Amino acid sequence: MASRVWWSAAILWMIMVRKVLGTYNVDPSFSRWPTKSAIPFYMDTSYYTPTEQGWIRSAASKIMADLQGCVTFVETTASDPRFKIFITPYNDYGVLQTFCYSYQGQYNLLVNTVQPFQRMILVRGAPYGCLDGTLRNIMKYFAIILGKRNEHQRGDRENYINVINANIAVPNSYRLYNDSEARWSLKPYDFCSITHNRINDYSTPGTNAFTIAASSGPGGIPFLNTISQIDCQLISMIYNCDPNLCPALDCNAARLSAGASTTLAPVTSTTPFPTTTPAYCPTNYFCTRPTEESSYLLGPYQFYQTLLMYSGPCVMEYTFDWNTGFFNPSGPPVPVTTYFPSPGGPTAVTPVDLAYMQVDPNGAQLLLTVANSASATGLTCSTDPSVPTNAATCPTAAGSSTILANALAKVSSVTTQINLQIPDIYQYVVLKPGNNEIALMSSDFTQTFAQSTGFLTSGVGGVTGAPMVTITALQILQDQSNVNNDLMAVFGTDAAGNPLVGFVDMLTTADPLLPIGPWAWMGTPMPLAQTFSRYCP
């Protein structure tokens, strides 16, 4: 009976994904993971160094972020009774492997025979190891274990690349799929797929495994620390998520950037990991930790009101649901240094405890600065308001500035607002040293126009901010449908340090001629975890 259950599930999955356009698994020996919100994995910590463990965690976090929260990997232990992924360099016989590989989905035979796990093989070392300090080479195997098949093995690949069989060092690494294993014909060949090998992958040293056909146009195989748009759409549809949420990727531009040369390319990333262990941001990270800062991603009055919440080394995109009063995470928390893209992103110093927006010197766009007060450095990024997620471009490394120095001397949190009448940018801030009053300041933090008195201890109708005693972050919430008035989300802690959030109805027009207030607390501040639509128990 158990065998029939898994077989039926596999067939239903296979029928469903035949509607999808891309290179995906149809072998009924494998199926999608049944609990997409908690796919458990654990690592062989006797083999992997702390740094390598950090790389693997960061790859899992990046896959989750790229998929817009469609699936969630959850780290666990060997004793967890759930069927899980065991990340190890050893095969079933305890033999250390020399290259990396994974099953293409949940392996049903192992589930049916009540085995505790299936293996994902990740190994270090040249020439075929994937633990080389890059995100991409690990992310590939997380994509495969979700059901994505290798793009370079699709049955029509001869129209796009020319495999040089004499140079192949790892058997079956370029074997063509047949139509009982995979489907591919309804989607363009994806040179940007994270599952596509580069020209020298699994070839004998000093040779290429394939060349790119002239008919495929100019450009190489991009080495991107992200899944492609087609990868995202495919996996999203396999797991019944909205593929329209997948961020666009200009693959032709990425190919041109990678270069048209088919000469041997180095197996190193242009965006290497830090030498320290990368952060790991579990899905429930913000449920029990105070929010250290919040900011717009795109800016006030933008069509997409995407917000960013920061704490420790992590950041999470979220929106506010005006119908339910909940915060809706757009995806799971991820490390700040991988959320903000290279070349600047990896240089960001965490925790981000100050974030604000400015107009660029040409007045053409808004710039987001995320800063760390201890190091007095900030990362400045432009954002694209035409997309709701992952919209930042960070061309320069984190550094210091006069504006940042002004802010760090006076305030502990910022939420930026545009005065539409002038127009000009102003900053609503939390004032140091008490961190319990707010003010309106100029864009460069040199002038204070108005400030509150008793912000946490008073309010219209006698409702106050108690039990909140310290404000850790502010965030203006705007309803772009113009049905609701703006609210001020006030993040903070109680006397015991527990994270809270309250909502305040107040005028937020950033008029320097008006006082702060009056303000009305919309009920008593509540535990932060109660305001999330998911991730918190």
CATH topology call of the largest domain = Collagenase (Catalytic Domain)
Average pLDDT, rounded to a whole number, is 87
State the CATH class of the largest domain.
Alpha Beta
Find the CATH superfamily of the largest domain: Collagenase (Catalytic Domain)
- The fraction of residues assigned to DSSP E strands is 15-25%
By DSSP (H or I, 4+ residues per run), the number of helices equals: 8
- Gross morphology: elongated
Give Rg in angstroms.
Answer: 25 Å
The secondary-structure class comes to: alpha+beta
Biggest pleated-sheet summary: 5 strands, mixed
Which CATH-level-2 architecture of the largest domain? 3-Layer(aba) Sandwich
Number of domains: 2
Determine the N-to-C terminus distance. Answer: 33 Å
Per DSSP E runs of 2 or more residues, the count of β-strands stands at 29
* Share of helical residues: 10-25%
Walk across the major sheet and give the strand order.
Answer: 4-3-5-8-6
Q: Can you tell me the residue ranges where pLDDT is under 50 for at least 5 consecutive residues?
A: 1-21, 260-278
